[in-house]
Amino acid sequence: MDSTDLSHGIAALSLWIDEGNRGRDPEAATWARLAKITEEAGEVVAAQIGATGQNPRKGVTHTEADVQEELLDVALTALAALEHLRDHDERSIELLTDKLGRTLQRAGLH
Question: Sorted alphabetically, which InterPro entries does this protein's record hold (predicted)?
Fold first, then answer.
């Protein structure tokens, strides 16, 4: 999948989510999209706790692969929210690439 296909897929996912929430107040829908990122980040932490057995009552409940899947959920959720904010213009991967370039430059790695 190239970057155009990725952006198109992320925009399509975001539009699908928006269509499923069409009856909601637009501002509330945007807040919900942003809050969902935090929820997904919490699932990363829960998976890491489960993968390392930090809860003695539960023991090991997750794998490292589960943690990785949850991290990908965070990334997709954030990119889909970006598409939502940009009215699904299919530029999420382009913008991510630009952001990465600026971050690498600031870090002295580019």
Answer: AF0060_NTP-PPase_MazG-like
Looking at the structure of the chain, the number of domains it has is 1
Contact 76, 82 (CB under 8 A): no
Single pTM value for the model: 0.93
Q: How far is 7 from 76, CA to CA, in rounded Å?
A: 11
3-state helix, strand, coil in the chain (%, to 5): 75, 0, 25
Structural domain of 15: 3-106
pLDDT tens-digit readout, 82-106: 999 999 999 999 999 999 999 999 9
**CB distance 82 to 98 below 8 Å:** no
Task: Note the pLDDT tens digit of each residue in 40-63.
Answer: 999 999 999 999 999 999 999 999
